[in-house]
Amino acid sequence: MAELTTLLAPAVDAAGFDLEEVDVRPAGRRRLVRIVVDGDHGVGLDDIASISETASELLDTTDVMGTSPYVLEVTSPGVDRPLTEPRHWRRAVGRLVVAPLADGGQVEGRVVAADDETVEIDVVQKRRNKGAAAKGGKPAGPRSAGAKAAGPRSAGTETVRRRFGLGELGRGRVQVEFKHPAGTAEGTRSPAEPD
Known about the structure:
Largest sheet: 5 strands, antiparallel
Radius of gyration: 21 Å
Number of strands: 8
Number of helices: 4
Strand content: 25-35%
Helix content: 10-25%
CATH architecture of the largest domain: Roll
CATH class of the largest domain: Mainly Beta
Structural class: alpha+beta
Distance between the termini: 29 Å
Order of helices and strands: HEEHEHEEEEEH
Number of domains: 2
Strand order of the largest sheet: 7-6-5-4-8
């Protein structure tokens, strides 16, 4: 696998994309070579076709696959791909995510910004009723600047903007949304970009 990655990564990089994964597995009498690529602005069908052609030429002109037949599949990652790298979090800006916290629990909210070290998330918090403090409950803490009055899930929630170090977050997952809030990255993507 390392030899395949070493062979293919420069070609994928030259096309302006990241090689996310290379997998080889048996598929009947052949082997399936699955290459997953992604980019900051998504991956279109023309991009997939071009990368597939380049990868096929590389595999055919080297002996890295040996003499047994194989099927090449080039694809983009699905929505279920875990967010593990800084670039994954950057590409999730505007999306609703759930991620475990290193110190226990989990965080749910919309990614607002991300860089190589941190992720800003508008965290979904359940709104407490007004009588909670009088009944011994703790009032909700102050909201950060820029926090929204209503969260992405329901009227009984609010959001608080929080910044997390990447080491504080486990493998995040993008949540599928069928109706995206206006003004989010989902509401502004072009039809050629993947959901």
